[in-house]
Write a structure and sequence with these properties.
Length: 68
């Protein structure tokens, strides 16, 4: 994480633009998974639901995306 911080700060990003937590996942974003469209545009709600699910990636990082 320190390497990421160092590189991004070196590129001129402000402190608030640098992530404090990073988690790599092997999820593949394809139209078949429903996470992107056929033209590879993000499907925001399905992505939110996928990563905000109980026991999901965001929960593992100690965060949950607010829901309506």
């Amino acid at each position: 994480m320190k390497d990421i911080d160092k590189v991004l700060r070196g590129l001129g990003l402000a402190r608030f633009e640098v992530p404090t937590k990073v988690k790599i996942t092997d999820d593949i974003w394809t139209p078949e998974t429903g996470l992107v469209t056929a033209s590879m545009k993000l499907q925001r709600n399905p992505l939110r639901e996928h990563y905000n699910a109980k026991g999901g990636l965001l929960e593992q990082m100690g965060y949950t995306f607010p829901t309506k």
